[in-house]
Amino acid sequence: MTQMDDTRKQILHAAVERILHYGYSKTTMAEIAKDCNMSAGNIYRFFASKLDIAEAMARKFNEEAYETFARIADKKVSAADRMREIFHYELTRTYSAIADEAKILEVAEVLADERPLYMNEKLAKERTYLVQIMRDGMEAGEFRQIANPEEVAEMWQSALMKFRFPQLFSKLTLPKLQREIDGVMDLLLAGMSPGATQPAVWEGLPEAVDPHCVPGVEVVMKKHLNADD
Amino acid sequence: MTQMDDTRKQILHAAVERILHYGYSKTTMAEIAKDCNMSAGNIYRFFASKLDIAEAMARKFNEEAYETFARIADKKVSAADRMREIFHYELTRTYSAIADEAKILEVAEVLADERPLYMNEKLAKERTYLVQIMRDGMEAGEFRQIANPEEVAEMWQSALMKFRFPQLFSKLTLPKLQREIDGVMDLLLAGMSPGATQPAVWEGLPEAVDPHCVPGVEVVMKKHLNADD
DNA sequence: ACGCTGAACAATATATTGAACGTTCAGCAA
DNA sequence: TTGCTGAACGTTCAATATATTGTTCAGCGT
């Protein structure tokens, strides 16, 4: 049904055009429809909601990243450098995208708010590449043996969370962010080096039972958290 | 001038009482004043602003933490366990405080918003203890030699940022947060183990010049960022 | 002099209202 | 039947007016 697909693409194209120029909240379904010479109601035969248009926009934006991840993961350089390049690439890519097209930030914010599962999906997809690189590194003797690469990949993502939407989390400049992300990755990589010894299991406090258990979804707050130098 | 100090304490006490019950924005200077049998104007002889009362409240709350940090740093257990305990303690402490007194969250939010430098000060103070423990660990041969402990301490804080105000950043339960923070710390500690080799300096992309440079202050956003099964 | 009040002021928050918006769907057209 | 429209609905948004609040300070009492 290429007719349907074409119309979808047309709508998405018109929406991206407007959203990049006026922002997500300032572009209306009626305007997108007018750009496509159709009624607002008709858009709903192609997208279930305005949010779905934003998600499609993000998917398009991220496809490029997945391709790059795949290319980086297959590079013939050290696994450490590939790990670094993945996160460096993603940091620079999102930072510049937002710097160039400031209105993208609003889309990211809305999606982070309303589509947490999509964010999750993206993290999961990224992890497959991290795991692949880690296995390579283990095989090559560059990394120590890691029992649970999938879990360690999650820890990398956790430790590097604040670099994921640079302008949402901090007002640091790109060079500063790059130096900081490198610093963290230096430690993480050292922790995976062959000589590194996994620390003894820590007998922490007894696991507290949490009465305020809202399963599943992470939430992130807005505005200043700390300052720098 | 103990008279002055007493009045300050009285005001702070009344403010804390009200803020814990009604929240920061819902308690007015006039109400605090009435509780102290004085006029609102008089409060300003003891606190420069309402925000300063919130900051004093946080300082009081955090003093307890610094004492604990000092006690942990001097413990006769492995440096690794001390590092872990510092962050574990802080995570549990802030998590429970907010779980018990939900209104504290608003104070944290306001301060993070309006007093970034105070947050910074807190991080700097925490780092002195981290550095002390790291030096201990190096001396004991438990950690590898680290050229710049102050910088590595910053990287720890960066990697563990999301655990600092647990309920602001995520809706994960405390047990889940604890498992995740332990996972990240496992990696960081392995990276400081004597056998760990610091990765070769990474020749990253040429340092991009950032036109959107807002020096100094970090900003953090609100709401959902990702989800977790 | 000193400590404090309470009126006054500017800034912020709250309430209200009308318009605009996302979304649905009965019905028209092909 | 199928594809689409445009009116209708409930919600959200923006603008305005109103009230509260944080903050200041002239002046009063001690």
In short:
2 copies of one chain form a homodimer. Chain A contains 10 helices and 1 strand.
What's the SSE pattern of chain A? HHHHHHHHHHE
* N-to-C CA distance of chain A: 57 Å
CATH fold group of the largest domain in chain A: Tetracycline Repressor, domain 2
Q: What is the annotated CATH architecture of the largest domain in chain A?
A: Orthogonal Bundle
Helical segment count of chain A: 10
State the oligomer: homodimer
Low-confidence stretches of chain A: 207-229
CATH class categorisation of the largest domain in chain A: Mainly Alpha
Shape of chain A: elongated
Count all strands of chain A and give the number. Answer: 1
Structural class of chain A: mainly alpha
Largest sheet of chain A: none
What proportion of the residues of chain A is helical, as a percent range?
A: 55-70%
Topology:
The structure is a homodimer.
Chain A: H1 2-22, H2 29-35, H3 40-43, H4 50-73, H5 79-100, H6 104-114, H7 116-139, H8 149-159, H9 166-169, H10 174-192, E1 217-227
Helix pairs in contact in A: 4-5, 4-6, 4-7, 5-7, 5-10, 7-8
Chain A binds a DNA duplex (30 and 30 nucleotides) through helix 3.
